[in-house]
Amino acid sequence: MGVWELLLVGVVVVLGLCGVLVPGVPGSWLVWAAVLWWALTDPQPLAWAVLVGATVVLLLSLAVRAALPPRRLRQSGATPRTGVYAGVGAFAGFVLLPVVGAVPGFMAGVYLHERLRLGRHGDAMAALRTTMRSGGSSVLAELFACLLIAGAWLGAVLWG
C-alpha cells in the first residue's frame, strides 16, 4: 500500500474518531471500515489480525453500549463544545498514558469545560456526574473502542 493510500486510510480513521463525538455520525463504523479497506488493500497476516481485533473490539463496544443508559446528552446540558473538550482530553490521555489514559482524559475534558463554563469546582463535578449518567459513559465506551482500533492500526502501520 502506498503512502497516499495510507494517508487516506488515516484521514478516514480521524474522521471516524471525530464522528464518535457528533450525534448521528457512525464514527465507530467509519474507523472499522478504514481498517477493513487497509486490510483488503494490503493483505498480510498482521493486517488481517488487526481487522479481526478491530471487529472484536467493535462488537464488544456495541454490547457494552447496549447495557448502558441511552444517550440524552442534550437534556443534561452538554453542548457540542463539551464533546470537543472530552474528545481532546481522551486523545491526550490515550497518548500520554497509553490506552488507560483515555478514560481519565475524557472525564478531565468534560470537567475542564464545565469548570470554565460554571466557574466553581462543586458545580463542575455535579455537571460531570450528570453528563456521564446521561450518556457520557456510552460516548466514552465508543470513543475508547475507536481509540484502541486506531492505535492498533497505527502500530501495525508503523512497526509492522
Write the layout of secondary structure elements.
Blueprint: H1 3-20, H2 27-41, H3 45-67, H4 73-76, H5 80-96, H6 102-118, H7 121-159
Helix pairs in contact: 1-2, 1-7, 2-3, 2-7, 3-7, 5-6, 5-7, 6-7
Q: How many H/I helices? A: 7
Rough outline? elongated
Distance between the termini: 13 Å
Which structural class best describes the helix and strand composition? Answer: mainly alpha
Largest sheet: none
Q: Beta-strand level of the residues, as a percent range? A: under 5%
Provide the gyration radius in Å: 16 Å
Description:
The protein has 160 residues and is an all-alpha fold. The chain is 83% helix and 0% strand. Helix 1 (3-20) runs antiparallel to helix 2 (27-41), helix 2 (27-41) packs parallel to helix 7 (121-159) and helix 5 (80-96) crosses helix 7 (121-159). The longest helix has 39 residues, at 121-159. It is elongated and about 50 Å long.
